[in-house]
Structures are given as C-alpha cells and as structure tokens.
Write a structure and sequence with these properties.
Oligomer: heterodimer
Number of helices of chain B: 6
Helix content of chain A: over 70%
Largest sheet of chain B: none
Mean pLDDT of chain B: 87
Order of helices and strands of chain B: HHHHHH
Distance between the termini of chain A: 24 Å
Structural class of chain A: mainly alpha
Number of helices of chain A: 9
Number of strands of chain A: 0
Strand content of chain A: under 5%
Structural class of chain B: mainly alpha
Shape of chain B: globular
Strand content of chain B: under 5%
Low-confidence stretches of chain B: 177-181
Number of domains of chain A: 1
Mean pLDDT of chain A: 89
Helix content of chain B: over 70%
Chain lengths: ~220, ~230
Amino acid sequence: MTYLQTVWQVFRKDVQVEWRGRQGVPVMLVFALLMAFLFNFALQLSPDLQAGLAAGLLWVSLAFASTLGLNRSVSLERENLALDGLLLAPVDRSAIFFGKAWSNLIFTLLVALMLLPVFSLFYGQNMLKPGLLLVILLGLGAYTSLGTLLAALSIQARTRDVLLPILLYPLALPVLIAAVEASRGVLSAQPLGELRSWIFLLLACDILFTAAGLLFFETILEE
Amino acid sequence: MFKKPPILILLDLLSIVLVPAALILILFFTPVEAVMGPVQKVFYFHVSAAWAGMLSFIIAAAAGAGYLIRRDLKWDQLSLSAIEVGVVFGLIAILSGMIWARPIWNTWWVWDPRLTTTAIMELIYLAYFILRSGLATPEARARLGAVYAIVSVITVPLTFFSIRLFRTIHPVVIAPSEGGSGFNMSPRMQLAFFISLAVFTVLLIDLIWNRTRLAAAQAKIQMGEN
C-alpha cells in the first residue's frame, strides 16, 4: 500500500464512521448555532454592531465547535482499542495523521458551509463569498492540523477531554487572528490583494502545523 | 552525586551580589527620564525579565529536542526547569510593565500586541504544567512535554507577528533612530540596560541550573520509591 493509499484508507474510514453514526458534524453544527445565540444575548448585539462582528463570531463559533469534533475523532479510536489496531498496522504513522487531519478538515468545512447561510441571515449580510470560502479553507486547514496533533497528545492524559481546548486555543491564536482579520476584510469588500499578509500568515500556519504533524505524530503515539 | 559543582556556587554568589548591584546602579546612576520621570526606571528590569523569559522558553524547546533525540530524562528535567523559571520571569515582565503602564498609559492593562502576546505566552506555558500533571509516567511526561515545548516555541513568534500587524502603542526602544546608534537612550541608560540584561541572564542560568538539580533529585527519590 502506498503512502497516499494509507492516508486515503484512514480518511475513508473516518468519513464512513461519521456517515453511519452522524455524531460529529451535527453536534458541531448545533453547538456553533447555540454559540451564535449565546453571543447575541451576552453581547447585546445591536444591528449596526452585528455586521462588523460577524467575522469574529463566525470564527469563535467554529473554533469552539471544532474541539468537539477533534476530541471525538481521537476518543473514537480509544473505544474497543481501535487505536491499538491502527498503531499495529505496518504503515507510516504520519499517514494516519494526514488521514485524520483531513477527515477533521472535511467535517469542520461542512459545518462552516452550513453555518454561512445561517449567519448570513442572522447578521444581515451575504457571507457566501468565494474569498471567505478561501479564508475558511486555509484557516480551518491550519486549525484542524494543529488540533489533530494536540488531540492525539491530550488523549494520553488522564484529563483528556478537558485538556484539548486548553492546549489548542492559545497555540492556534495566530490562525484565529489572521482568519478573523482576513474574513472581516473580505466581508467589508476589501480586495484580496490588500489582505495578502493575512492570507500568507494563514498559509504559513498551514505549512508549519502540517510539518509539525508529519514530524511529531509518530513521537506522540509511540508506546 | 548531589554535591554542588563549583561553577554553580560561583553563579549563586554572582546572582546574590549582582542583582542588588544592578538595582543600585539603576536607582542612583541612571538619569531620570525627562518625560516619564522616575517610573521609567522600571524599564531596565522589565525588559531584562522579558528577555530572560523568552530565552528560557527557547532553552526549553532546545532541551525538548535534546530529549527526543537522546531519550535521556536529564534533558526533560532541563526543559521543565527552563519553562518553570521562564513563567516566573514572564510574570515579572507583565507585572512590572503594569506598574509602568498605570501612570504612563493611565491604565493597568491595554490590549496591545506585546502585552497580549506575553500574556498568551504565559497561558501556553501554564497549560504545559496541566498537560504534564495529567500524564502517568515520567517517560510520557518527557516525550509529550518535549513535543509541546517545541510546538509552542513555533507559535509564539507567529502570534507576536500576527498581533503586530495591528498597530502597537508599546514603546519601541531598540529601533533605528536618527543618531544611527540604534538605541533611543542616553549612554548611561544604555550601560545600565546592558548590565541589567547580563545580570538577568546570569540569574536565569543560575535558577534553571538549580531547578534542574532539584528535578534530578526528585526523580531519584521517586525511583527509590518504586
């Protein structure tokens, strides 16, 4: 089996589990929607404030909701010792990382795609823009890479489920800042050229966190 | 085995003498800044503490890499010690900065890039202790702690850079100036500044070294228990 085939098999397995159980994406989606309502009451959003805050609220909702999926993607493997099975397979473990990181990316992208029309309604502006989709792809790519790495790390601790957010949020901050700024720019109709430093920063995070996964996933899972 | 090496004793003595000496130098030797007044003197220890904190986090990441390559718990003890000492220095930098900010900015805290980055850095390394406390074996603590220390040291400059893209109000002291010297300070201020940096570096090495010896002693006791 080639490296890419291994990645594909892990990815396919995760998608299949999600398709049959439907316990990740719906949970994240409902959670993200709940966040939108909580923000509305907590921040007492007036209509003129809402437009400017939409980008920030979208990303905070996505960031919080993703941790549920990330935690689940790894804790799933602990049930019935599935993780041991995965680790016993004679394959490069970084391939497992890519399979899982990309399935997590697909799930969170799905959530984002379903959130966008709803946020467009709630915050009174069209958020289904190609530029925003690009920012979401780059931002979630970096976020889920780092998240998958840290989820594999936190799963080994006694405090596993509560640990991931504490590790992930501060480390993912550059991604979130760049994503929020780029999204805000896109929504206020700035051309992508003006937002290039944010886009480059997102790309840099994508590359760095993917490299970190490639480098450290094996080390994290060795026993 | 646990006899103190002479160099460490020397470092201890140097720290004990040099820190008060630097303080005396700052209080009586440096001029009072024209606009800000005496509170500007916080600057010397403030920047030195921030420098020591950042240096120790880099040491921690390097020691983490050392552990992953060598698989010797000594490296992990160094990494842990550097982070512990670094968190304390980071806290000193934040608190001394707040003391300065209260009269100068008229507030204890602003959401400025450097302040925010430093605070986030503290949170990242506080999470390091939470991670370690949840892990059962010294080997797992060392292995995962090393990975976390390395990943953290990558994201901290990224965070700094990303917030820096916003506008900052934090004073930039070391920057190209008209004089061409690169420092917006009088010669006496510069001297005191560099001495503070050197003193804090000595103090940092001394503290990390002592803390590492403590970690080694702890490990030995725990080995004896099992």
